[in-house]
Amino acid sequence: MADRKVVIIGSGPAGLTAALYSARANLSPLLIEGLEAGGQLMLTTMVENWPGFRDGIMGPDLMTEMRAQAERFGTEVIQSTVASVDLQHRPFTISLADGRQITTESLIVATGASARWLDIDSDRRLSGHGVSTCATCDGYFFRGKPIAVVGGGDSAMEEAIYLTKFASKVIVIHRRESLRASKIMQDKAFANPKIEFVWDSEIVEVKDVSKGEVSGVVVRNLKTDALSEIALDGVFIAIGHTPNTSLFRGQLELDETGYIITRDGTRTTVPGVFAAGDVQDHVYRQAITAAGSGCMAAIDAERYLEHLPVADERTDRAASHA
Q: Which of the residues 3, 61, 134, 200 is marked catalytic?
């Protein structure tokens, strides 16, 4: 017999919403926080696009409230990380980094995706203070200000074009002398009068003023090694995301970039295993869509559990004494 009916891995908007709905369905879910407790919203400052908060809410405060709400209805949260999972045998087995093992009849994977950073320290330090990895989340804060977008693929061009709605100027900084984006996205970017390009270059430092706000970037030309400084107020890093799916390679079907493939809602290729949030969504990547898919995963898991055969305790006892 399994220890749990539902286990959720991940504590961002998807995981906590799944926990809330599972708890309200009397499934007594267990939520394993993981390395980045609270997900990417813990790295943001003001969240202005979460419904219900007309004046906005700080990202960490929102996650604190979501966790408290899930716990209020009976979710058990443990501060641990998962070392491995066995999805080949039922019930599923989850091995924690501290040596504990947990078995469960169903599993909701909400491990998210991690934005790729520049590995220059200053970008991480100024995350939420002028450095962002999400244009739709933070573009509004840069109305009338000059900003930079780092990257040369479709995502970078989409973000650059989107940000021209707010910024006075968008400077695309790219390591190569040509873009990797599709031709249609390149054409749109080149045609936009607000977008400028700095080629064959990389950011080596994000500069800030005393208040911890971005004031500019130091850029190195990769052909000449020359350094130059560009004054601006924000930096958007658009060099991709890495889905946190290493635990599930070889056990769940992943796409070519490592995202979990789901069908018919949040169902994975293993019955009883569901995926929600950025771990399976590389299109929208919003807190609200992650929360919505967390709700879906909880309902899908509840319906799955309803159709499992119920063990007859008398038969089990007789078998154990045979």
A: 134
Q: Where residue 132 falls among pLDDT bands split at 50, 70, 90?
A: very high
Alpha-carbon separation of residue 13 from 128, 237, 292, 308 (angstroms):
18, 22, 9, 28
Greatest pairwise CA separation for the chain in angstroms? 81
CA distances from 52 to 62, 250, 292, 320 (A): 11, 41, 15, 54
Span 257-272, pLDDT tens digits? 999 999 999 999 999 9
Average pLDDT over residues 291-313: 89
- How high is the pLDDT of residue 210? 67
CA distances from 290 to 71, 76, 146, 279, 311 (A): 19, 21, 30, 9, 34
pTM across the whole model: 0.78
Find the catalytic residue in 138, 278, 281, 300: 138
- Known catalytic residue at 295: no
Q: How far apart (Å, rounded) are the C-alpha atoms in residues 40 and 287?
A: 9
